[in-house]
């Protein structure tokens, strides 16, 4: 099951053209040329509409601050400048603090999620123990409970644990919400690895942990990548949990800081700086997604459709 | 489940008389409950402490008068009894339902067209699919800020566009009235979330056996007939899943309204989660907010249950 979970859904464009072309007879070829023209006209327009907000924001962030606050706005920058990014360093604690906060939160969430999911996935796939089905079912139950309604009592529980207003606390909460997906995917991945492969190592006296680490883990690496990728994008983008759990200007993550910038907490709204901040908030997930696209699509289709 | 796992042992968990073993070492792997527990321990701790415990706390809170600071006091059913008089929450129910219906209808309608484009065998379809999907990895708060900057009355490019196409002479005011604020947010939501649905639909489309289309074509079925009798039946489970995800996601909307409209104008775009957030962190009435959360939780579980039931019924 695991390998199918992590096998990227093959894009239609790469495997479909062959039968498509083979089917096309001479009679339809002329009509299909017009069809192709219409197809590209419509599709390109739609694609342009989807890319426009991102491109526009990137271009605006590169205007000079004077041009960025011009009324009426210019369509395209007259000259390029990084001054809007420079201004971000003057808001609150400076953009660097918030970038680091976001990075630390994401890194911790990914670490917690991957470690807990891999260990639990392995435990569920390889061992039988009392309460196994109950625990697995309870973990999946997290999906059924609206995220937002749990944040309130979590605020209290984190207070009891002394983790209120800490990045570790928020990271643990985000890990909890990622667990159903992570545990489910890792269990399936490990189940697809024949246990006979590990038995040789166990007979040679290796502990279960070593067998996991050196034998099975490399084989489920694509699944781990998918879990890590989902966890990174979710925690980097997360808004409500840090908004509730983190107080005090120096703790905020990037999305929270940008909303304060928008609400004018640091003076009149500086749209150029705001758009520069949005670019910084968006760029990491876009880059990571474009680089690891196949793991992401695999997770969506494998995890989401089976879950 | 892998065949190597001892069947039944998972359910009962009771130690059994040794079954006839064909391979030495097999039993040693599956029958070490302690080791199994050690592996699942971190996840189990998180589930118990950060999921089950808060769930219990939520229930208790909902029956208490729980201020942000100070000692909680039992309040009986008062938090629940006062819900009908809670104008913010009652108003949010209507608005959230309207928003959910519109968002789901829009996303379903448009995603069919985009999925057809993305699943096309023509060259360029992969590029188009990526373009449609990219906004999905953008955070909702960041996406809402993109919209906020674009529609602001002073420097927003959409205001200039509205004038350029003759929509208005002065200021269009994309967030100025309740209707405009709703539709502006809907455009953001379609842009941000539709890519997920398109990708899932494309995967569903690819699971339809090509021979069926070939056979139908030979029998002279029109493309509309092929859509009705082949594509749609095959896509039904996918569509049901997408409906569940879209409805539950929309019922829990918060970020986009908090950031883009701030619930305005005139509290007209306050969603359920927004109302709970305000009750807890603006009015500092945690007990009442917990009661509202319990109501929301039960509603969501009911919606999920009904939709899954309908899905199972149709599959029979």
Task: Describe this protein with a few key phrases.
heterodimer, A: 307 residues, mainly alpha, MetI-like fold, 17 helices, disordered N terminus, B: 316 residues, two-stranded antiparallel sheet, globular, transmembrane helix (chain A), transmembrane (chain A), cell membrane (chain A), membrane (chain A)
Query: Which regions of chain A are unreliable across 5 or more consecutive residues at pLDDT < 50?
Result: 1-24
> Per DSSP, what share of the residues of chain A sits in E-state strands of 2 or more residues?
under 5%
Strand arrangement, largest sheet of chain B?
1-2
Mean pLDDT across all amino acids of chain B: 83
Q: What name is given to the CATH topology of chain B? A: MetI-like fold
Main structural class of chain B = mainly alpha
Question: Would you mind describing this structure in some detail?
Answer:
The complex is a heterodimer of chains A (307) and B (316). Chain A is mostly helical and 307 residues long. In chain A, 74% of the residues lie in helices and 0% in strands. Chain A has 17 helices and no strands. Chain A is globular. Residues 1-24 of chain A have low confidence and may be disordered. By secondary structure, chain B is an all-alpha fold. Chain B has one domain (89-315): MetI-like (MetI-like fold), CATH 1.10.3720.10. In chain B, 69% of the residues lie in helices and 1% in strands. At the A-B interface, helix 2, helix 3, helix 4, helix 7 and helix 8 of A face helix 1, helix 2, helix 3, helix 5 and helix 6 of B. Chain A: Residues 1-25 are annotated as: Disordered.
Structural topology:
The complex is a heterodimer of chains A (307) and B (316).
Chain A: H1 2-6, H2 12-15, H3 17-23, H4 26-61, H5 65-68, H6 83-87, H7 95-126, H8 132-141, H9 147-160, H10 167-191, H11 196-203, H12 208-216, H13 221-237, H14 240-245, H15 254-262, H16 271-291, H17 293-306
Helix pairs in contact in A: 4-16, 7-10, 7-13, 8-10, 10-13, 11-12, 13-16, 13-17, 15-16
Chain B: H1 9-12, H2 26-30, H3 33-62, E1 64-65, E2 73-74, H4 78-81, H5 87-118, H6 125-133, H7 140-151, H8 157-164, H9 178-206, H10 210-218, H11 223-251, H12 255-261, H13 272-281, H14 286-315
Antiparallel strand pairs in B: 1-2
Helix pairs in contact in B: 3-14, 5-6, 5-9, 5-11, 5-13, 6-9, 7-9, 7-12, 9-11, 9-12, 11-14, 13-14
């Amino acid at each position: 099951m695991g390998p199918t979970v992590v096998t990227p859904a093959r894009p239609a464009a790469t495997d479909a053209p062959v039968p498509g072309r083979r089917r096309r007879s001479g009679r339809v070829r002329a009509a299909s040329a017009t069809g192709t023209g219409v197809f590209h006209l419509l599709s390109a327009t739609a694609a342009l509409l989807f890319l426009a907000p991102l491109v526009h924001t990137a271009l605006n962030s590169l205007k000079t601050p004077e041009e960025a606050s011009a009324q009426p706005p210019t369509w395209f920058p007259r000259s390029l400048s990084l001054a809007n990014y420079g201004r971000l360093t003057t808001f609150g604690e400076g953009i660097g603090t918030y970038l680091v906060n976001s990075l630390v939160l994401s890194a911790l969430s990914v670490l917690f999620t991957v470690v807990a999911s891999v260990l639990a996935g392995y435990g569920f796939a390889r061992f039988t123990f009392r309460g196994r089905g109950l625990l697995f079912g309870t973990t999946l139950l997290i999906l059924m409970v609206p995220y937002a309604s749990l944040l309130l009592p979590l605020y209290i529980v984190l207070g009891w644990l002394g983790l209120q207003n800490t990045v570790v606390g928020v990271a643990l909460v985000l890990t909890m919400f990622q667990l159903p997906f992570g545990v489910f995917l890792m269990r399936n991945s490990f189940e697809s690895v024949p246990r006979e492969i590990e038995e040789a190592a166990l007979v040679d006296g290796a502990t279960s942990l070593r067998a996991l680490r050196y034998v099975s883990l490399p084989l489920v690496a694509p699944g781990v990548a998918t879990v890590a990728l989902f966890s990174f994008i979710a925690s980097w983008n997360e808004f409500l949990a840090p908004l509730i759990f983190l107080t005090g200007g120096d703790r905020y993550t990037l999305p929270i800081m940008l909303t304060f910038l928008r609400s004018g907490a640091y003076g009149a709204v500086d749209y150029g700086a705001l758009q520069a901040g949005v670019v910084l908030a968006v760029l990491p997930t876009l880059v990571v997604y474009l680089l690891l696209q196949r793991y992401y699509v695999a997770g969506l289709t494998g995890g989401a459709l089976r879950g | 489940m892998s065949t190597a796992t001892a069947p039944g042992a998972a359910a009962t968990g009771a130690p059994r008389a040794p079954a006839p073993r064909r391979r030495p070492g097999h039993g040693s792997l599956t029958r070490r409950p302690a080791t199994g527990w050690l592996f699942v321990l971190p996840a189990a701790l998180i589930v118990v402490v950060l999921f089950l415990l808060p769930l219990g706390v939520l229930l208790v809170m909902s029956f208490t008068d729980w201020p942000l600071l100070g000692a909680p006091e039992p309040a009986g059913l008062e938090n629940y009894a006062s819900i009908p008089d809670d104008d913010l929450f009652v108003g949010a129910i209507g608005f959230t339902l309207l928003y959910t219906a519109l968002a789901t209808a829009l996303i379903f309608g448009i995603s069919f067209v985009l999925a057809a484009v993305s699943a096309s065998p023509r060259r360029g379809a992969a590029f188009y699919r990526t373009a449609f999907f990219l906004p999905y990895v953008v955070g909702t708060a960041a996406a809402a800020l993109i919209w906020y900057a674009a529609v602001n009355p002073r420097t927003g490019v959409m205001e200039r566009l509205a004038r350029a196409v003759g929509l208005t002479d002065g200021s269009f005011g994309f967030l100025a009235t309740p209707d405009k604020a709703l539709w502006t947010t809907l455009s953001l939501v379609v842009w941000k979330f539709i890519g997920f649905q398109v990708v899932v639909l494309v995967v569903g489309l690819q699971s339809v056996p090509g021979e069926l289309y070939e056979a139908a074509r030979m029998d002279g079925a029109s493309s509309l007939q092929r859509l009705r009798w082949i594509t749609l039946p095959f896509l039904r489970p996918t569509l049901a899943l997408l409906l569940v995800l879209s409805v539950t996601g929309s019922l829990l909307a918060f970020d986009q309204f908090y950031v883009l409209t701030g619930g305005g104008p005139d509290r007209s775009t306050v969603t359920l989660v927004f109302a709970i957030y305000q009750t807890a962190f603006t009015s500092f009435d945690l007990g009442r907010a917990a009661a509202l959360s319990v109501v929301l939780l039960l509603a969501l579980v009911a919606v999920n249950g009904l939709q899954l039931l309908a899905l199972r019924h149709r599959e029979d």
